[in-house]
Amino acid sequence: MNISHIEHIGIAVKSIDEAKKYYEGVLGLKCYAVEEVKDQKVKTAFFKVGDTKIELLEPTDPEGPVGKFIEKKGEGIHHIAFAVKGIEDALSEIEGKDINLIDKSPRKGAEGLDIAFLHPKSTFGVLTEICEDKSNK
Ligand code: CMX
Questions:
Q1: Which residues have CB under 6 Å of ligand 1?
Q2: How many whole angstroms from 68 Cα to the centroid of ligand 1?
């Protein structure tokens, strides 16, 4: 598998507006995009840190994946996302190694990336995403 870098770290928060006071006011990062991902029942906010981003995730529905996560575990790191080249091949390779895939084929995520999740029970407790930017940005 060809992983180039950590694309982003997803952090579950109850309120993006509240959390922004820390990321902008204390860490001095700049929020450059806010986007709702309706099918995931979240609002997202992005901050760049070198080649990696911080993705804040605020639930829009308590029954969505992030709403359930906050209810159970509280705010905190929700997932880690690795940028790969060739996401379809990466998924076939991962499936061949007996890892439980949440997404057997890529779907569209925030920022137009092709994304797929690996179940945390197969990945030592860390919800893991692989993603690929197929645009020519
Ligand atoms: N990290 C680590 N463990 C997690 C987890 C997370 N983010 N979310 C759930 N779990 C654990 C739970 O603690 C639970 O463990 P126990 O059985 O030991 O208690 C187990 O996984 C099952 O949890 P659950 O609450 O019953 O939740 P579900 O099975 O309904 O769903 C998951 C869990 C990971 C399959 C689901 O959240 C999912 O499909 N996630 C992928 C999509 C997603 O997270 N989208 C939001 C982000 C979208 C974006 O970035 O744009």
A1: 10, 37, 40, 42, 44, 55, 57, 65-66, 68-69, 72, 78-79, 102, 109-110, 117, 119-120, 125, 127
A2: 8
Residue 106 inside a domain? The answer is: yes
DSSP-based three-state secondary structure for 39:
helix
Sort residue 124 into left (φ over 0), alpha (ψ -120 to 50) or beta. left
Tell me, yes or no, if the pTM score tops 0.85.
yes
**Residue whose tokens read 């179940």:** 119
Domain with residue 22: its CATH number is 3.10.180.10
Where residue 71 falls among pLDDT bands split at 50, 70, 90?
Answer: very high
Categorize the per-residue pLDDT at 98 as very low, low, confident or very high, splitting at 50, 70 and 90.
Answer: confident
In a domain, 137, yes or no: no
51-78 burial: b if 16+ Cβ within 10 Å, else e: eebbbbbbbeeeebbbbebbeeeebeeb
Given a cut of 90, whether residue 119 has pLDDT beyond it is yes
State the amino acid at position 137 in one-letter form: K
